[in-house]
Amino acid sequence: MKTAKLAAAVTGIVAIGALLLSGCSSQPSTGGASQGPSASGSPRPTVHLNVGYISTSINGVGLTEVANHLDLWKQAGVDVNLIPFTDGPTQVQAMAAGSLDIGYVGGGATWMAMTGQAVIVAPSEATLGDAIIASAKSGAKTIADLKGLRVGVAKGGSGELILDLALQKAGLTPDDITEVPLTAPAVVTAFVAGQIDVAATYSPLSDQILQSAPDAVTIATDKDFPDSQFIGAWVASTQAMSQHPDAVERFLEVYAQANDYRIANPTDSVNWASAASGAPADQLQSQVNTLKWWPSSQIAQDNASGLTAQRFTNLQNLFISVGRMTQDQEKPIADWLNTDLYNQAEQTVQASK
Protein backbone atom coordinates (compact mmCIF):
# COMPACT_ATOMS: atom_id res chain seq x y z
CA MET A 1 0.00 0.00 0.00
CA LYS A 2 2.08 2.90 -1.26
CA THR A 3 1.27 6.03 0.70
CA ALA A 4 -0.18 9.00 -1.17
CA LYS A 5 2.37 11.18 0.59
CA LEU A 6 5.28 9.62 -1.25
CA ALA A 7 5.71 12.38 -3.82
CA ALA A 8 5.42 15.13 -1.23
CA ALA A 9 7.97 13.51 1.05
CA VAL A 10 10.45 13.04 -1.76
CA THR A 11 9.97 16.67 -2.76
CA GLY A 12 10.76 17.63 0.81
CA ILE A 13 13.99 15.69 0.70
CA VAL A 14 15.04 17.48 -2.49
CA ALA A 15 14.18 20.83 -0.90
CA ILE A 16 16.37 20.03 2.10
CA GLY A 17 19.17 19.12 -0.28
CA ALA A 18 18.76 22.45 -2.04
CA LEU A 19 19.12 24.30 1.23
CA LEU A 20 22.29 22.40 1.99
CA LEU A 21 23.71 23.33 -1.38
CA SER A 22 23.15 27.03 -0.95
CA GLY A 23 26.42 27.44 0.94
CA CYS A 24 28.56 25.39 -1.42
CA SER A 25 31.22 26.93 -3.61
CA SER A 26 32.56 26.08 -7.03
CA GLN A 27 34.36 23.17 -8.65
CA PRO A 28 38.02 22.43 -7.84
CA SER A 29 40.67 24.79 -9.14
CA THR A 30 44.42 24.88 -9.17
CA GLY A 31 46.58 27.86 -8.37
CA GLY A 32 47.31 30.03 -5.37
CA ALA A 33 50.13 29.61 -2.87
CA SER A 34 52.32 26.57 -3.19
CA GLN A 35 51.87 24.15 -0.29
CA GLY A 36 52.33 20.46 0.36
CA PRO A 37 55.67 19.01 -0.72
CA SER A 38 55.67 16.19 -3.22
CA ALA A 39 57.56 12.94 -2.68
CA SER A 40 60.64 14.62 -4.16
CA GLY A 41 60.35 17.58 -1.81
CA SER A 42 59.24 20.05 -4.50
CA PRO A 43 56.25 22.26 -3.63
CA ARG A 44 52.99 21.63 -5.45
CA PRO A 45 50.37 24.22 -6.31
CA THR A 46 47.46 24.30 -3.90
CA VAL A 47 44.21 22.73 -5.12
CA HIS A 48 40.72 23.60 -3.90
CA LEU A 49 38.16 20.90 -3.10
CA ASN A 50 34.60 20.93 -1.80
CA VAL A 51 34.37 17.77 0.28
CA GLY A 52 31.11 16.46 1.74
CA TYR A 53 30.69 14.15 4.69
CA ILE A 54 27.88 12.72 6.79
CA SER A 55 27.93 14.64 10.06
CA THR A 56 26.67 11.74 12.20
CA SER A 57 28.82 9.03 10.62
CA ILE A 58 32.17 7.88 11.97
CA ASN A 59 33.01 7.09 8.34
CA GLY A 60 32.30 10.70 7.40
CA VAL A 61 33.04 13.22 10.15
CA GLY A 62 35.35 10.69 11.82
CA LEU A 63 37.62 10.70 8.78
CA THR A 64 37.55 14.43 8.10
CA GLU A 65 38.26 15.26 11.74
CA VAL A 66 41.34 13.03 11.76
CA ALA A 67 42.54 14.90 8.67
CA ASN A 68 41.87 18.20 10.41
CA HIS A 69 43.68 17.29 13.62
CA LEU A 70 46.71 15.88 11.81
CA ASP A 71 46.83 18.87 9.45
CA LEU A 72 46.78 16.50 6.48
CA TRP A 73 44.99 18.90 4.14
CA LYS A 74 47.80 21.44 4.33
CA GLN A 75 50.45 18.76 3.99
CA ALA A 76 48.81 17.57 0.76
CA GLY A 77 48.36 21.12 -0.54
CA VAL A 78 44.56 21.01 -0.36
CA ASP A 79 42.48 24.10 0.36
CA VAL A 80 39.43 22.21 1.58
CA ASN A 81 35.85 23.36 2.08
CA LEU A 82 34.19 20.75 4.30
CA ILE A 83 30.39 20.56 3.94
CA PRO A 84 28.21 18.50 6.33
CA PHE A 85 25.29 16.44 4.98
CA THR A 86 22.79 14.09 6.55
CA ASP A 87 23.08 11.33 3.94
CA GLY A 88 24.87 10.12 0.82
CA PRO A 89 22.23 10.64 -1.90
CA THR A 90 22.05 14.37 -1.17
CA GLN A 91 25.79 14.62 -1.74
CA VAL A 92 25.49 12.99 -5.15
CA GLN A 93 22.73 15.48 -5.97
CA ALA A 94 25.12 18.26 -4.97
CA MET A 95 27.72 16.84 -7.35
CA ALA A 96 25.21 16.92 -10.18
CA ALA A 97 24.57 20.58 -9.36
CA GLY A 98 28.31 21.30 -9.56
CA SER A 99 28.56 22.25 -5.89
CA LEU A 100 30.49 19.27 -4.51
CA ASP A 101 33.63 17.51 -5.71
CA ILE A 102 34.03 14.57 -3.32
CA GLY A 103 31.79 12.99 -0.71
CA TYR A 104 31.17 9.94 1.44
CA VAL A 105 28.21 7.64 0.73
CA GLY A 106 27.15 4.54 2.61
CA GLY A 107 26.82 1.18 0.92
CA GLY A 108 23.16 1.70 0.14
CA ALA A 109 23.84 4.79 -1.97
CA THR A 110 26.73 3.49 -4.09
CA TRP A 111 24.18 2.52 -6.76
CA MET A 112 24.07 6.21 -7.68
CA ALA A 113 27.69 6.02 -8.80
CA MET A 114 27.01 2.75 -10.58
CA THR A 115 24.38 4.49 -12.71
CA GLY A 116 26.88 7.12 -13.81
CA GLN A 117 26.10 9.91 -11.34
CA ALA A 118 29.54 9.83 -9.65
CA VAL A 119 32.77 7.82 -9.60
CA ILE A 120 33.87 5.60 -6.71
CA VAL A 121 37.50 6.43 -5.89
CA ALA A 122 38.04 4.51 -2.63
CA PRO A 123 36.18 1.92 -0.56
CA SER A 124 35.52 3.10 2.99
CA GLU A 125 34.10 0.26 5.06
CA ALA A 126 32.09 -2.92 5.18
CA THR A 127 29.23 -2.45 7.61
CA LEU A 128 26.91 -4.48 9.79
CA GLY A 129 25.11 -1.48 11.28
CA ASP A 130 21.88 -1.38 9.24
CA ALA A 131 18.66 -2.51 10.91
CA ILE A 132 14.89 -2.79 10.65
CA ILE A 133 13.30 -1.90 13.98
CA ALA A 134 9.63 -2.29 14.88
CA SER A 135 7.81 -0.54 17.70
CA ALA A 136 6.46 -2.72 20.48
CA LYS A 137 2.98 -1.36 19.77
CA SER A 138 3.12 -2.63 16.17
CA GLY A 139 3.36 -6.23 17.35
CA ALA A 140 5.86 -7.04 14.59
CA LYS A 141 8.48 -9.64 15.48
CA THR A 142 9.48 -11.05 12.08
CA ILE A 143 10.03 -9.69 8.60
CA ALA A 144 6.71 -11.17 7.46
CA ASP A 145 4.97 -9.00 10.06
CA LEU A 146 5.91 -5.88 8.10
CA LYS A 147 2.86 -6.39 5.89
CA GLY A 148 0.45 -3.48 6.23
CA LEU A 149 2.71 -1.45 8.54
CA ARG A 150 4.02 2.09 8.13
CA VAL A 151 7.75 1.84 7.43
CA GLY A 152 9.92 4.96 7.60
CA VAL A 153 12.98 4.96 5.38
CA ALA A 154 15.44 7.38 3.80
CA LYS A 155 15.24 6.77 0.08
CA GLY A 156 18.39 5.72 -1.75
CA GLY A 157 20.44 4.75 1.30
CA SER A 158 21.40 1.58 3.11
CA GLY A 159 18.20 1.65 5.17
CA GLU A 160 16.19 1.23 1.97
CA LEU A 161 18.57 -1.49 0.79
CA ILE A 162 18.12 -3.64 3.90
CA LEU A 163 14.37 -3.06 3.64
CA ASP A 164 14.42 -4.28 0.03
CA LEU A 165 16.38 -7.37 1.04
CA ALA A 166 14.04 -8.10 3.95
CA LEU A 167 10.91 -7.79 1.83
CA GLN A 168 12.42 -10.03 -0.82
CA LYS A 169 13.38 -12.64 1.79
CA ALA A 170 9.84 -12.69 3.20
CA GLY A 171 8.21 -12.88 -0.22
CA LEU A 172 6.77 -9.39 0.11
CA THR A 173 6.92 -6.37 -2.19
CA PRO A 174 6.96 -2.61 -1.45
CA ASP A 175 3.23 -2.61 -2.22
CA ASP A 176 2.67 -4.79 0.88
CA ILE A 177 3.76 -2.00 3.21
CA THR A 178 2.98 1.68 3.62
CA GLU A 179 6.35 3.18 2.80
CA VAL A 180 6.97 6.58 4.41
CA PRO A 181 9.93 8.35 2.77
CA LEU A 182 11.77 10.63 5.22
CA THR A 183 15.18 12.15 5.72
CA ALA A 184 17.46 9.87 7.73
CA PRO A 185 17.22 11.91 10.98
CA ALA A 186 13.45 12.27 10.55
CA VAL A 187 13.08 8.47 10.61
CA VAL A 188 14.22 8.55 14.24
CA THR A 189 11.90 11.43 15.17
CA ALA A 190 8.89 9.84 13.48
CA PHE A 191 9.51 6.47 15.12
CA VAL A 192 9.84 7.89 18.63
CA ALA A 193 6.71 10.02 18.07
CA GLY A 194 4.71 6.97 16.98
CA GLN A 195 4.13 8.33 13.48
CA ILE A 196 5.58 5.18 11.89
CA ASP A 197 5.50 1.54 13.03
CA VAL A 198 8.87 0.49 11.66
CA ALA A 199 12.20 2.17 10.94
CA ALA A 200 14.63 0.94 8.28
CA THR A 201 17.86 2.77 9.03
CA TYR A 202 21.55 2.57 9.89
CA SER A 203 23.89 3.13 12.83
CA PRO A 204 24.05 5.46 14.76
CA LEU A 205 20.40 6.30 14.00
CA SER A 206 19.39 2.73 14.82
CA ASP A 207 21.15 3.12 18.19
CA GLN A 208 19.28 6.38 18.85
CA ILE A 209 15.98 4.61 18.26
CA LEU A 210 16.80 1.74 20.60
CA GLN A 211 17.96 4.15 23.30
CA SER A 212 14.78 6.20 23.02
CA ALA A 213 12.49 3.16 22.69
CA PRO A 214 14.13 0.27 24.59
CA ASP A 215 11.07 -1.93 24.09
CA ALA A 216 11.43 -1.75 20.29
CA VAL A 217 12.15 -4.98 18.44
CA THR A 218 15.02 -5.40 15.97
CA ILE A 219 13.64 -7.76 13.36
CA ALA A 220 16.49 -7.73 10.82
CA THR A 221 20.12 -6.57 10.53
CA ASP A 222 22.90 -6.95 7.97
CA LYS A 223 23.87 -10.21 9.68
CA ASP A 224 20.66 -11.76 8.34
CA PHE A 225 22.01 -11.32 4.80
CA PRO A 226 25.54 -12.77 4.90
CA ASP A 227 25.83 -12.96 1.11
CA SER A 228 25.20 -9.22 0.75
CA GLN A 229 28.12 -7.06 1.87
CA PHE A 230 27.35 -3.36 2.10
CA ILE A 231 30.44 -1.29 1.27
CA GLY A 232 30.56 2.46 1.80
CA ALA A 233 32.76 4.58 -0.44
CA TRP A 234 34.25 7.95 -1.15
CA VAL A 235 33.01 9.18 -4.51
CA ALA A 236 34.03 12.05 -6.78
CA SER A 237 31.88 14.03 -9.18
CA THR A 238 32.24 13.18 -12.85
CA GLN A 239 33.28 16.80 -13.42
CA ALA A 240 36.11 16.62 -10.89
CA MET A 241 37.30 13.34 -12.37
CA SER A 242 37.38 14.67 -15.91
CA GLN A 243 38.74 18.14 -15.22
CA HIS A 244 40.82 17.85 -12.03
CA PRO A 245 41.94 14.25 -11.37
CA ASP A 246 45.10 15.67 -9.77
CA ALA A 247 42.97 17.36 -7.10
CA VAL A 248 41.07 14.12 -6.46
CA GLU A 249 44.38 12.33 -6.03
CA ARG A 250 45.42 14.88 -3.40
CA PHE A 251 42.25 14.07 -1.48
CA LEU A 252 43.13 10.39 -1.65
CA GLU A 253 46.56 11.10 -0.19
CA VAL A 254 44.77 12.66 2.77
CA TYR A 255 42.30 9.79 2.92
CA ALA A 256 44.98 7.08 2.93
CA GLN A 257 46.78 8.67 5.89
CA ALA A 258 43.65 9.51 7.87
CA ASN A 259 42.28 6.01 7.27
CA ASP A 260 45.35 4.32 8.72
CA TYR A 261 45.37 6.67 11.71
CA ARG A 262 41.72 5.99 12.59
CA ILE A 263 42.30 2.24 12.37
CA ALA A 264 45.24 2.51 14.79
CA ASN A 265 43.55 5.14 16.99
CA PRO A 266 39.76 4.68 16.85
CA THR A 267 39.23 6.46 20.18
CA ASP A 268 40.77 9.65 18.78
CA SER A 269 38.52 9.45 15.74
CA VAL A 270 35.43 8.96 17.92
CA ASN A 271 36.28 11.77 20.34
CA TRP A 272 37.23 14.26 17.64
CA ALA A 273 34.13 13.43 15.61
CA SER A 274 31.92 13.79 18.68
CA ALA A 275 33.41 17.17 19.59
CA ALA A 276 33.00 18.46 16.03
CA SER A 277 29.51 17.16 15.29
CA GLY A 278 27.82 16.96 18.68
CA ALA A 279 27.02 13.29 18.08
CA PRO A 280 27.36 11.30 21.33
CA ALA A 281 30.67 9.46 21.53
CA ASP A 282 28.97 6.22 22.57
CA GLN A 283 26.83 6.24 19.43
CA LEU A 284 29.87 6.85 17.23
CA GLN A 285 31.70 4.06 19.02
CA SER A 286 28.78 1.72 18.35
CA GLN A 287 29.34 2.35 14.65
CA VAL A 288 32.99 1.42 14.97
CA ASN A 289 31.90 -1.85 16.56
CA THR A 290 29.75 -2.78 13.54
CA LEU A 291 32.10 -2.08 10.66
CA LYS A 292 35.40 -3.06 9.11
CA TRP A 293 38.01 -0.64 7.81
CA TRP A 294 40.74 -1.88 5.48
CA PRO A 295 44.32 -0.58 5.97
CA SER A 296 45.33 1.73 3.13
CA SER A 297 48.03 -0.63 1.88
CA GLN A 298 45.44 -3.43 1.79
CA ILE A 299 43.09 -1.26 -0.27
CA ALA A 300 45.89 -0.72 -2.80
CA GLN A 301 46.55 -4.47 -2.94
CA ASP A 302 42.85 -5.23 -3.37
CA ASN A 303 42.65 -2.61 -6.11
CA ALA A 304 45.56 -4.22 -7.95
CA SER A 305 44.24 -7.76 -7.58
CA GLY A 306 40.75 -6.86 -8.76
CA LEU A 307 39.14 -7.67 -5.39
CA THR A 308 37.84 -4.12 -4.95
CA ALA A 309 36.18 -4.29 -8.36
CA GLN A 310 34.67 -7.67 -7.52
CA ARG A 311 33.21 -6.41 -4.24
CA PHE A 312 31.50 -3.49 -5.94
CA THR A 313 30.35 -5.65 -8.84
CA ASN A 314 28.71 -7.99 -6.32
CA LEU A 315 27.00 -4.98 -4.75
CA GLN A 316 25.83 -3.82 -8.17
CA ASN A 317 24.32 -7.24 -8.80
CA LEU A 318 22.54 -6.98 -5.45
CA PHE A 319 21.05 -3.62 -6.42
CA ILE A 320 19.74 -5.14 -9.63
CA SER A 321 18.29 -8.18 -7.84
CA VAL A 322 16.28 -6.04 -5.40
CA GLY A 323 15.15 -3.57 -8.06
CA ARG A 324 17.23 -0.58 -6.93
CA MET A 325 18.80 -0.62 -10.40
CA THR A 326 17.64 -2.08 -13.69
CA GLN A 327 19.87 -3.96 -16.08
CA ASP A 328 19.33 -1.12 -18.56
CA GLN A 329 21.05 1.20 -16.07
CA GLU A 330 24.06 -1.09 -15.66
CA LYS A 331 27.23 0.55 -16.92
CA PRO A 332 30.77 -0.79 -17.47
CA ILE A 333 32.69 -0.78 -14.21
CA ALA A 334 35.36 1.47 -15.75
CA ASP A 335 32.70 4.21 -15.96
CA TRP A 336 32.06 4.32 -12.21
CA LEU A 337 35.10 2.87 -10.41
CA ASN A 338 38.60 4.33 -10.57
CA THR A 339 41.29 2.57 -8.52
CA ASP A 340 44.32 4.03 -10.30
CA LEU A 341 44.17 7.40 -8.55
CA TYR A 342 44.05 5.77 -5.14
CA ASN A 343 47.06 3.56 -5.88
CA GLN A 344 49.00 6.57 -7.15
CA ALA A 345 48.10 8.45 -3.97
CA GLU A 346 49.19 5.54 -1.77
CA GLN A 347 52.53 5.39 -3.61
CA THR A 348 53.03 9.12 -3.00
CA VAL A 349 52.28 8.71 0.70
CA GLN A 350 54.66 5.77 1.08
CA ALA A 351 57.42 7.58 -0.82
CA SER A 352 57.15 10.60 1.49
CA LYS A 353 57.75 8.55 4.64
Key features?
alpha/beta, 21% strand, disordered N terminus, 45% helix, 353 residues, 16 helices, five-stranded mixed β-sheet, D-Maltodextrin-Binding Protein, domain 2, single chain, four-stranded antiparallel β-sheet
Give the termini separation.
59 Å
Strand order of the largest sheet: 8-7-9-6-10
How much strand content do the residues show?
15-25%
Largest sheet: 5 strands, mixed
- Give me the CATH architecture of the domain at 42-127 and 229-352, please: 3-Layer(aba) Sandwich
What is the fold's blueprint, element by element?
Layout: H1 6-21, E1 30-37, E2 43-54, H2 61-69, H3 72-75, E3 78-85, H4 88-96, E4 102-105, H5 111-114, E5 119-127, E6 130-134, E7 150-153, H6 158-169, E8 178-181, H7 184-192, E9 198-202, H8 205-212, E10 217-221, E11 230-236, H9 238-243, H10 245-264, H11 266-277, H12 281-288, E12 291-292, H13 296-305, H14 307-321, H15 333-336, H16 340-352
Parallel strand pairs: 2-3, 7-8, 7-9
Antiparallel strand pairs: 1-2, 4-11, 5-11, 5-12, 6-9, 6-10
Helix pairs in contact: 1-4, 2-10, 2-11, 7-8, 10-11, 10-16, 11-12, 13-16
Can you offer a commentary on this structure?
Strand 1 and strand 2 form a beta hairpin. This protein starts with 5 loop residues before the first helix and ends with a helix. Helix 2 packs across helix 10 and helix 2 packs across helix 11. The chain has helices spanning 6-21, 61-69, 72-75, 88-96, 111-114, 158-169, 184-192, 205-212, 238-243, 245-264, 266-277, 281-288, 296-305, 307-321, 333-336, 340-352, and strands spanning 30-37, 43-54, 78-85, 102-105, 119-127, 130-134, 150-153, 178-181, 198-202, 217-221, 230-236, 291-292. It is globular and about 65 Å long. With 353 residues, it is α/β, with parallel strands linked by helices. The chain has a 5-stranded mixed beta sheet with strand order 8-7-9-6-10, sandwiched between helices. The chain has a domain at 42-127 and 229-352: D-Maltodextrin-Binding Protein, domain 2 (3-Layer(aba) Sandwich).
